[in-house]
Amino acid sequence: MTNNIRIGVMPLEKDASTCFELPNCKHPGAEVEILKMVYRLIGVNYTIIDVWKEFGEVYDFGAKQADGNWSGMIGLLQKGKLDMIGLSMRMSSEREEAVLFSYPTRVFESIFLIAPPSFTCTRQFIFNAFSRTVWICIIVTVLLIYSILLLINYVKIKDYDKEKPISKMFIDLFATSIQSFTVSSRAFLLVTLFATFLLSQLYQTDMYAFLSAPLKYDIPFQSIKQALDVVEKKKMYFTAFENQTLLCTPNNCNRFEQVIKRNPVRRAYREKEITEFILFELPTRGLRYQSAIIFGNCSAVLLSLHLSVLSSLD
């Protein structure tokens, strides 16, 4: 190892790749800032190497091959082309046999990115204040009240003029006003009006709440277990980079393997290809699996951070 440490990086972000090529960039990113601070303190020179430009490597942190050698960034480190990898990568017992990790600076999680989900708001949003069952009850109640009123009017008209033809009787029945009847009928009308007033106030309150609340997204799953169910039913599928490892916990590793056997992972070498899997592949859209907190440009477009509602317990 020379006094000039060769540090390999990947330009995963456009801003970061533009920034680390500039010697005086104010905000080069978390990894580069840590490297600058450490090497400034110990007084050692270093050079940041873009492995994609220098060696033509694809998105590959390092995977152990059948012959025992490593691919990607770890492979470059083993071959002596790099002295250090300047990226945050997942620690594993297999990788620890080949490289020496620094103190962990990040926590890796399982994050799913999907195509932009649609809003749950429909064109019939005016009916969303009440559920379908409530609307059916309201309609049945109105029809029942109207039928009772018609029955009351029919009895009174029938007793008033028994010799009138049935056709004329039905015309008078629908034309008769309830105001000409007794107090008992008016009391029934008052009860109906009061119930209508309460119902209208409840509807108005619910509509105000519905219109003022933020729109919700129709996300196909709310947890990793539900995501596995969706993939198992082949409504969606996983897509990942060629040598990317799908992380799992002891609670769901067996389920992961079973689901992937039934619905294999679609893999690609470039982020553009991954994005095409997610957005343009039909008839089912892709579901990207990302095993880190920080991800590329497409993640911010595909799924905003405040929509990441996956349960951490899964």
UniProtKB/TrEMBL annotation:
Keyword tags: Glycoprotein, Ion channel, Ion transport, Ligand-gated ion channel, Membrane, Receptor, Transmembrane, Transmembrane helix, Transport
Its membrane topology, per UniProt? Multi-pass membrane protein
Concerning SMART domains, the annotation shows: Lig_chan-Glu_bd (SM00918)
- Gene3D superfamilies the UniProt entry points to: 1.10.287.70, Periplasmic binding protein-like II
Protein name per Swiss-Prot or TrEMBL = Ionotropic glutamate receptor L-glutamate and glycine-binding domain-containing protein
* Transmembrane regions: 133-154, 174-199
Molecular functions (GO terms) = ligand-gated monoatomic ion channel activity
Mainly localized where?
A: membrane
Extent of the signal sequence: none
Q: Where does the protein end up?
A: Membrane
Taking every annotated instance into account, which residue ranges of this chain make up the domain Ionotropic glutamate receptor L-glutamate and glycine-binding?
16-79
Source organism lineage? Eukaryota, Metazoa, Ecdysozoa, Nematoda, Chromadorea
Q: Which PANTHER family match?
A: IONOTROPIC GLUTAMATE RECEPTOR L-GLUTAMATE AND GLYCINE-BINDING DOMAIN-CONTAINING PROTEIN, PROTEIN CBG02446-RELATED
The terms describing its cellular component in GO are: membrane
Among InterPro entries, the record links this protein to: Glu/Gly-bd, Solute-binding_3/MltF_N, T25E4.2-like
Q: What is an example of a Pfam family matching this protein? A: SBP_bac_3
